[in-house]
Amino acid sequence: MNIEFSGKIWFWKGPAPWYFVTIPADESYDIKMISASVTYGWGVIPVLVRIGKTEWTTSLFPKDGRYLVPLRADIRKAEKLHEGDEVTIHLKVG
Asked: In this structure, are residues 1 and 30 in contact, taking their beta carbons and an 8 Å threshold?
């Protein structure tokens, strides 16, 4: 499954701070429908992600009925991204 969407980067200040983009509700629902066949446990979903020219593998995290795309520091640096920036994300799920 291939998905493209746009969203804002936000910062979670928890015990392990991290930056995320939340996948919209409709796209999250589509992912949820195939989650049983692609998850490797705990509800996380492995994906191939692309923002701009940067591509990497990561796992989506479920939260409040939607999924979160985590953005590592090296990805944010490569694409010059900051909290609050609107980004277009391309996902390959499964």
From this structure: yes
